[in-house]
Structures are given as structure tokens and as C-alpha cells.
């Protein structure tokens, strides 16, 4: 309950939110905060007749989404819309990615023409070019070091496409089923999982380097820019599994699986170079797992 500038939690809720050292744990949505403003927190207890004195005081300064490594606020000074780009006859837009030159790429359906497109938008919000996909909506794109754009297709598509920076076709590879996302290593090789349960590596020329069947890895994004190998998550009988594959032939270097009594799901890996570790968040009460690279 929130009134008189205090937040009151019933005892039953406090019991459920007690930490290992007796601390009270709670979460507040970012939407409740005003960026840059400091909020003060304290705890009081009620024994049925009177309240205790305020204790365990703390404060929190709401951060902007844009902070530097020194935790200093760097923007936006004016949180206004810089530009808008409207896509005609599209009921939703795909996940955008931003290339090093500031170009924004994303896929979108088109309800009127039934020809989905991949859009390239300039840093000023004007259209750079678009690619008409004749069969299915483009999935989340990725940009290589030389500016090429790679993307798969949602249902009913089956192609992985590479476009040159000017929007012309570089190559297409038919995997036979949908591909939700693609990753690229520094040498321009593309890696992806497909719904027909393959993990595939495609050379910069558009020819397959290797392809292996794995029933557990669809919809997970391979990580291929750490070293010469490939890392990804798997869903193994309802628990997260993890693979390291040899980048040359796709053979398994190591694999491991979470050992738990709960059935839960993990998301794509994130690599921390400073610690040489991978992290993933799970649906097991927001648990974060750490995986050693070696």
C-alpha cells in the first residue's frame, strides 16, 4: 500500500521477501522513477500496536539509460524524439540494429502489398534503401565488419540473405526452414540455428562451411566473435544446456547442462571479456548463470 509518501508491505509479503541476512527485498519499476532524482528508502516495523523508529535508511539516484563507465550522466540532455520513420501498412516492426556508420536496419511486414521489406534508415531518419523480400518477413539483421547486412526469415521463409551496404544482393542460402537471427564473426562468416534443428556456418562467399544437427539449439543465437569457436545455449529436456563448438568443423569441444530440480528456460549468452565468462538470465526467478569459456 502506498500513501502518506510511505510504502507499506504486509508482514506476509515481507516474509516472502526476506534476504539471507534479514534484509527486505523489493523491486520498483523504472517507470516509477524520474531520471536524475534521488529517492530515499527506509524500513519500519509494526507489532500490532505501534510503529518502530525508522531504520536501515538508504538512498537511490535514478539513472538515465545513458551513463558512462564512471557512472556519470551523459544524456540525453533533451529527451525528445530526434526523428521518426514511418513504415506504411505495417502492423509491427522487427528488432532494429545500428551499424557503425549509424545506419539503422530492421525488417517489417507489409499488409497491403504482402511483400515484407528490410529497411535501411540513415542517421538523420531518411530512408537509405529497402529490400523487398518476396517470401517472408526478414528476421533480426546483423552487420558485418565490411558493412554487409545478414538476416534470416520468419515463417514461412527458409533463406538467409546477405546484402551489400548499398542494398544489392550479395548471396542467399536456403536452409529449408525459418531462421530467427544471425551472428557474424570478424572474418565475415555467418552462424545461425534453424527450425529444422541445424546449426550452420556459412562462408563470406555464401557457401556452407559446415552444418550439424542438434535438436536443442533452435532459436538461440550462436556467439562467434570471442575466439575461433562458437558458443550457444540449448534447451535440453527443460533445462539450460551450453555448447562450445569447434569453429572449423562444428564438432563439440565441450558441453554442459544446468543441474537443478526446476524446469526453466535460459536466454542467449552474453560474453564479458574482462572476466572471460559468459552469462545468461533464466526464467528460474530471474536467476543468472555464469559459464566459464574454457
Task: Please characterize this protein's 3D structure.
- Helices cover 2% and strands 36% of the residues.
- It is mostly beta strands and 294 residues long.
- The radius of gyration is 24 Å and the shape is globular.
- The relative contact order is 0.06.
- It starts with a strand and ends with a strand.
Keywords:
294 residues; mainly beta
Summarize the structure.
By secondary structure, this protein is mainly beta. It is 2% helix and 36% strand.
The average pLDDT value, as a whole number, equals 80
What is the percent of helical residues? Answer: under 10%
Number of E-type strands: 24
How much β-strand is present in the residues? 35-45%
- Cα end-to-end separation: 49 Å
Strand order of the largest sheet: 7-8-9-10
| Rg from alpha-carbon coordinates | 24 Å
SSE order in H/E notation?
Answer: EEHEEEEEEEEEEEEEEEEEEEEEE
Low-confidence stretches: 11-20
Helix/strand/pairing category = mainly beta
Taken from the alpha-carbon principal axes, the silhouette is globular
Question: What's the helix and strand layout?
Answer:
Elements: E1 2-3, E2 6-7, H1 11-16, E3 38-43, E4 55-61, E5 66-67, E6 73-75, E7 97-98, E8 104-108, E9 117-121, E10 127-132, E11 142-143, E12 149-151, E13 159-163, E14 169-174, E15 183-184, E16 190-193, E17 198-202, E18 208-213, E19 230-236, E20 239-245, E21 252-257, E22 270-272, E23 277-281, E24 288-292
Antiparallel strand pairs: 1-2, 3-4, 5-6, 7-8, 8-9, 9-10, 11-12, 12-13, 13-14, 15-16, 16-17, 17-18, 19-20, 20-21, 22-23, 23-24
Amino acid at each position: 500500500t502506498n500513501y502518506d509518501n510511505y510504502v507499506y508491505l504486509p508482514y506476509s509479503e515481507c516474509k516472502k521477501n526476506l534476504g539471507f541476512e534479514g534484509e527486505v527485498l523489493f523491486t520498483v519499476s523504472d517507470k516509477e522513477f524520474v531520471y536524475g532524482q534521488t529517492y530515499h528508502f527506509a524500513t519500519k516495523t509494526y507489532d500490532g500496536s505501534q510503529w518502530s523508529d525508522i531504520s536501515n535508511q538508504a538512498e537511490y539516484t535514478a539513472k538515465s539509460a545513458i551513463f558512462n563507465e564512471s557512472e556519470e550522466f551523459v544524456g540525453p540532455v533533451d529527451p525528445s524524439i530526434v526523428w521518426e520513420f514511418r513504415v506504411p501498412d505495417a502492423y509491427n516492426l522487427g528488432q532494429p540494429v545500428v551499424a557503425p556508420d549509424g545506419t539503422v536496419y530492421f525488417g517489417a511486414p507489409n499488409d497491403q502489398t504482402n511483400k515484407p521489406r528490410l529497411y535501411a534508415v540513415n542517421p538523420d531518419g531518411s530512408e537509405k534503401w529497402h529490400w523487398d523480400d518476396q517470401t517472408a518477413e526478414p528476421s533480426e539483421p546483423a552487420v558485418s565488419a565490411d558493412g554487409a547486412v545478414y538476416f534470416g526469415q520468419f515463417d514461412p521463409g527458409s533463406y538467409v540473405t546477405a546484402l551489400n551496404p548499398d542494398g544489392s544482393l550479395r548471396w542467399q542460402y536456403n536452409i529449408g526452414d525459418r531462421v530467427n537471427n544471425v551472428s557474424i564473426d570478424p572474418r565475415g562468416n555467418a552462424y545461425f540455428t534453424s527450425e529444422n534443428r541445424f546449426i550452420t556456418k556459412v562462408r563470406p562467399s555464401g557457401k556452407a562451411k559446415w552444418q550439424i544437427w542438434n535438436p536443442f539449439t533452435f532459436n538461440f543465437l550462436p556467439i562467434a566473435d570471442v575466439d575461433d569457436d562458437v558458443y550457444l545455449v540449448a534447451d535440453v529436456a527443460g533445462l539450460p544446456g551450453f555448447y562450445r563448438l569447434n569453429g572449423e568443423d562444428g564438432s563439440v569441444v565441450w558441453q554442459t547442462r544446468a543441474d537443478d530440480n526446476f524446469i526453466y528456460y535460459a536466454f542467449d549468452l552474453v560474453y564479458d571479456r574482462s572476466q572471460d565468462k559468459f552469462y545468461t538470465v533464466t526464467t528460474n526467478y530471474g536467476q543468472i548463470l555464469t559459464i566459464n569459456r574454457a
